[in-house]
Amino acid sequence: MAIILGIESSCDETAAALVTSDRRILAHRLAGQEEAHRPFGGVVPEIAARAHVEALEPLIAGALEEAGLDLADVDAIAATAGPGLIGGVMVGLVTAKALALAAGKPLVAVNHLEGHALSPRLADPALDFPYLLLLASGGHCQLLFVQGVGRYRRLATTIDDAAGEAFDKTAKLLGLGFPGGPAVERAAALGDPKAVRLPRPLLGSAEPHFSFAGLKSAVLRARDAGIHRTEDLAASFQQAVVDCLIDRTDKAIRSVTTESVRVERSRDTFRSVPPSLDFARDEREVTALDVARDERKPTALVVAGGVAANGPIRAALQALAAQHDLPFSAPPLWLCTDNAAMIAWAGAERFALGLTDPLDIAARPRWPLDPDAERARGAGVKA
Ligand code: KG4
Ligand code: ZN
Q1: 77: number of CA atoms within 13 Å, CB side?
Q2: Contact status, residue 189 vs residue 124, Cβ threshold 8 Å
């Protein structure tokens, strides 16, 4: 059994957690920065980075105290090394490096998206690879075939806004405040999802991707028409998001359960290579075992990321999984939004495989889970 200290600082939550390789969460602490960013209606990178500097050290000390542990008791130190706001990522990663050096512990540089992608396995010991994952957060909206630690095939991404970004922008348009997702969900609970006709971008389209920018613009026009209740606008928007997520996820389930999954040379994208170095160095040959594993059908439909905290979205995905006779897995709500337990857990999974990193590893503002994925066509493609 290994004990991992996890650190998260890639956006506007500063967090530290202690998690064991046998899935015990010994302590998890989190400091949000909502008040600091509220006047600006969104996250200001410089304010976030400074807040991380102030908050992180007491959070780590508090987590260790709560767990009754000393740094010497920890087996490895894991920190988000990207993607995210570079100032914040550097604060967490440099802190982790300093602690690793001082205590003589291995460092694990974790991709934040891998933190989300593996978080369901922390909560659900029965969840085995491979699984189909909808990863929906403030910065990403992707469907991934999760084959193993460090082994992801991206089936779809957004061609413009992320799902959480659409919630945040809609909340701003409707004057519901920041952060937007929970505010829209609360307002939507009091509204009629059929009250306002809104578009479902790419619904039924042959391509696998998501799009949310047009939906947000339609909310703006409907608001300006001045005839709808805010609650009805929120409920209709949320229903449109649900319909898009379900349609695209249904398409992905069909693609991975009807065809056998394409077996590719797979490379572990999370080895300790700064972007300037050649990734090929870290490619692993596909072994017979890998091939057998990759050809298996998904064991479950899984959702993760901040948007996975949304009740109607979880319920609709659960129903979709049932239609396809697939088990459904979603982390508890607190584990969906950014936290350090998921970073510690991804660290534990990597540490168990011997995947540690050197102290000169670079922070990466962009870091795709599947570097082989084709670029999606679209005006504002981000991932
Ligand atoms: O995963 P996360 O905490 O941070 C990123 O990695 O982006 O996701 C934050 C996003 C925000 O856009 C937030 O509005 C959205 O998740 N979110 C929600 C809910 N809770 C958080 N969206 C819809 N419904 C919610 N209940
Ligand atoms: Zn996140």
Answers
A1: 26
A2: no
Distances (CA, A) of 230 to 89, 161, 180, 204, 243: 36, 22, 14, 28, 20
Name the pLDDT band for 286 (thresholds 50, 70, 90).
Answer: very low
- Which residues make up the environment of ion ligand 2, defined by Cβ < 5 Å? 137, 338
- Which ligand lies nearest the alpha carbon of 307? 1
Percent of the chain with pLDDT over 70: 89
Ligand 1 lined by 309 (C-beta under 6 Å): yes
The reported pTM is 0.90
Residue nearest to atom 22 of ligand 1 (CA): 181
What is 164-201 written as a DSSP string?
A: HHHHHHHHHHTT--SSHHHHHHHHHTTS-TTSS----T
Distance 138 CA to ligand 1 centre (A): 5
Is residue 131 within 8 A of residue 301, CB to CB? The reply is yes
| Cβ atoms of 59 and 51 closer than 8 Å | no
- Rounded Cα distance, 92 and 270, in Å: 17
pLDDT, tens digit, for every residue of 226-239?
999 999 999 999 99
Whether 81 has a pLDDT exceeding 70, the answer reads yes
- Which tokens belong to 318? 């659960």
Nearest partner of 141 among 111, 114, 164, 110, judged by Cα = 164
- The verdict on the CB of residue 161 being under 6 Å from ligand 1 is no
